[in-house]
Amino acid sequence: MQESKTLKDKDQSINPKEDSIDENKRINTFSYIVGSFYTISASIFDNFFQFFAIMLGSAGIVQGLITSIRQLGTALLSPFWGRLSDKFGRRRFLVIGNLLLSIIAIIIPNLATIESLLVILIVYTIVNAMVMPTWTGYLGDMTYTQIRIRGSIIGKVGMIITLIANIALLFVAFLMDKTDPN
Length: 182
Prior knowledge:
Layout: H1 7-10, H2 23-26, H3 29-55, H4 60-88, H5 90-107, H6 114-142, H7 150-179
Helix pairs in contact: 3-5, 3-6, 3-7, 4-6, 5-6
């Protein structure tokens, strides 16, 4: 009976020859860059999207729709994107997804209507559903030989990308304050 390929064999982001690699080499620059972009984009979206919806005159029902679309859409689409990242590799989904999330974060402040905001919300939901399970799978793949210290490795990555994201959010808030006409 032929053994099926493991995720390690399918995903080019993992080099099977490096099973004994130490923690510092496994947590590479790619992880911090991708994690930072994801955390920054998601934080900007989560913290400022409702603000822009209110600025554009959204009613209470639109606020509820925004939350529902984002949560339900992400929940329903995540398994699909997770399977695709298992099949085709995680890096390309992470790079494309984070690039799109960054573009969305830049577009949001420039929208002029509630309708355009809802379209961006749907696009964001689809892309976020792609990145979330792929990032989680990537973290698992990255630590597959470090089972006993997996939590501390993932915690370290999370801490660093959260610090980077908070610095970026403070910068965005500073820019918004400087550009506020009031």
